[in-house]
Write a structure and sequence with these properties.
Radius of gyration: 55 Å
Strand order of the largest sheet: 3-2-1-6-5-4
Oligomer: single chain
CATH superfamily of the largest domain: Histidine kinase-like ATPase, C-terminal domain
Distance between the termini: 19 Å
Shape: rod-shaped
Order of helices and strands: HHEEEHEEEHEEHEEEHHHEHEEHEEHEE
Helix content: 40-55%
CATH class of the largest domain: Alpha Beta
Length: 494
Amino acid sequence: MFLKRNIVIIGLSLLLVFAIAVWLIGIGINKTAVQMHNSMIEEMGGYRAELIAMDFGKTVELNRIIQDYLMVNPDNERELQSLLLGLVRLDAKVSRIWYQKENRNFVCIDSLGVTKQDPVLEINLEKIAYEATNMDKSTFYYSDGILYWTLFRQFQDVVYGIDLSLPDLHTYFAQTNPAVRSYIYILNGQGILMCHPDETRIGRYLANSDDPGRYDEAIRENKFVRCSGMSQFLLLPVERIYFPVGVGNEKWVVVINIPDFITQEEMGEFRRYTWWIGLFTVLVFSVLLAYAQYRWKKEYHRRLELEKETLQLTLQQLKNQINPHFLFNALNSLNALISTEPVLAKEFVLNLSKLYRYVLEKRNDNLVPVREEVEFIRYYFFLQKIRFRNELELDIASNIEQEIKTIPVMSLQVLIENAIKHNEITKEHPLCIRVYRKGDLLIVENDYQPRLDTDKESFGVGFENIRKIYAYCSNKQFAYSVENGHFICILPLI
């Protein structure tokens, strides 16, 4: 039971340590994954912002192409209009290109190649012409309910400009990145929204709730700025990244908005994979540990059974061990008594028969009550006493006569036989053996007067057998020692 409990504790401890290690590794992997995810978002966001800047840069470049043409061929109207039609079709986000030469009619060209008049633009043309320089300028105006952003310039006596429909601008960028699960808005150099999924907000300044100073920080520091906030468009928490980009002579800001649930969804899937791998690893380790414990316990029980069988055999040998020399000596003593003391001879035979009956009756027992063992010893000692007469004495304390606690069967016989066998017994040196109880210990004590011709090997075999029986029957230990001229053997009561 103790071993089983220890094996379980060791197994659970190892499993706990392994599970904690997997958990810590999972946390580390998750932390690294978050960092990689954030880095990827910033890298992809920066790449997208650069593409937008390049796209607007292409629009700005159209103004330079028109100026280069006017420098070479300012008077060929038909070729100029053909060029402008090609430029409109070249840049998909451009709604139209217009121009007006001094004291001539206003000309507007769209992707269909139709030349038409725009009264609203003509109304604003005076203001535009007043503001026009040889450098790119921009402004906003409404026409037919649509907000346009126009990029214009003056070259000599020609004022020309490129118009972009801002509501169409969001659709354009959405179509160029259909797989991106985010939305963007674009702020020009004045902080006005050039592009936004909510058309009602285009051409307006960004609300403070959407931009708590991050636009100015991105412009001032000229680096991306990342923050969390609440999207007034989605009414959801989002991650925002502000990317400053150059458009012509201005510094714009592209703002990428990523809903938190997308990030959580992507990271949640990664976490699930991580934890599934961790769980699978723990389960595999648990199975291997359980199998190892099973093999360990099986091997332990196999060895335990072998030890039990060995001890059982030793015990059986001990039970059957009535020294042949004892029987030989007993029969010689009986032969002598028959002719000299027939009455004592009859008592001798009776005790011998009781002795062997006890051996036969207890052959299947491992432990016996002390009182039965004491009774058996009296039969045994009676036979030895016939041989040694007054040279051998046995003193058994009265407090163990009715003792019901147990000791290994025939252990007292082994100790008394060893005392007789290994000590000098003469008239000058009689041997006294005492048996008494001390607490939960049964003490067998004799005078220590060892024979010079004693067989020390046989001495150790008997004691080793008793020690093995105690190991088999209990966790208590048999012990012996020599103290003050006495040989003392200690038999723990069970």
